[in-house]
């Protein structure tokens, strides 16, 4: 499984529509998706699935007109396709690189253990493949429930995951840790799996996806969320996670470089629930890193850290306060696709 910083051809988005939980917030959330789309088009292509034909046609026309005026390298390809929701990271295809070229894997998706409707999302990749979106690359079904947000790859055979997510009985109840590692090796080429047993975010529906907690910046460097407030409910779990990360070793036995990310001020939804704001939910694309910001004082400190982490890439902030109202953020709504994986 390539690292996220490997070359890409496109980013996949699943557009919000009135039939999703965004129906009462479309005016707030569509500008976020447009900000992400325009940022991506500055560097690479977009593959957008959209529930309604007229909206798909409108988006493709408007985004490509804008990209053409700006003389950008990216173009948008918008395809009508049914979807329950917008979390492309988790229902999108997972690419692997082999000696014979790129393979696209279609793992099963059940909305994080059956928490929400999922049938349309589970069929979305096949719909895109039937529409010719992946060109000559076949889409291979894998009879195992796995979400892209639950995996971090260093591109060299090491995966970083959380036991809270992958071991949840509502996903693959017949698989113990050893069986899961075997499948990750057979499908994604993993030679090592690093399991985090601690760490969570209040308001997170995913059972602690790794992409909300800790991320590879390069093969020897991990950034992670740190809670520095002993009175915060997250302090014990995230402190234990930090200790686990310090104990992890690279394949050669050396420790990882570790960089903590700022802990944003608590943000609450309309019903008083705490929302899962995290700077770990960034997206690496060709030449840039898109960083979620939330309108809190820690945003600028986070952006400064990302400039140090990725000095050769442009750091682009994307206001994502509307996204966390549905308990996800920037990385959750995107899925990168490698060169040759998209037919545009």
TrEMBL record:
Alphabetical list of InterPro entries matching this protein: Peptidyl-Arg-deiminase_porph
Pfam family, one: PAD_porph
Keywords: Hydrolase
GO MF terms held by the record: agmatine deiminase activity; protein-arginine deiminase activity
GO annotation terms (biological process): putrescine biosynthetic process
PANTHER family: AGMATINE DEIMINASE-RELATED (PTHR31377:SF0)
Protein name: Agmatine deiminase
Source organism: Marinobacter daqiaonensis
